[in-house]
Amino acid sequence: MAAPGLEERGLFAQGVQAVLSGWAALQLAVAQGFGGPQGPEKAAWLAGALQDFFAQNAELQEEEVEEFLAEVMDNEFDTAVEDGSLQQVSRELVTLFAQASRGDVAGVREALGALARRGPALCAALAAAHPAPTPATPGRGEEEEEEEESSKEEAEEEAMECGTPPPPPDGWTLVRRRRR
Length: 180
Prior knowledge:
Helix content: 55-70%
Number of strands: 0
């Protein structure tokens, strides 16, 4: 396979970013702090590492990419991904790279569009994944309560950025009008 040109490499880089942004396992690991306070930086590093991995290894197979991703998730995010998404992400990356290498700009752009449409569903899942707040218990310090309130506010901000309403307060049910 011929090395992709500048435009194709740029599209592949966008594709890698889109695939990783839409990968729930990675995004949850970052959001929940599994990678430590440097989680977002590690996720950004992974995008570059994947681009280098593809550029330096001709004819990568899905299994090789899957092993690479599993190792990174385990080592950097202390996360074992067992939901089948490693295979899906690997397949998407190999397909994007093959399209970029062939110069199939239209195919890569089409894949980018499909990946972008997945974004709102992931945002909703991330907003729902925040742990439920615990009721105030005697003996808890002000610092713990402030941290809890801060994380609750962050979850609401994330939900609003994704275009989804924040979770309802404890004891309340969110009711939405059906669309006709």
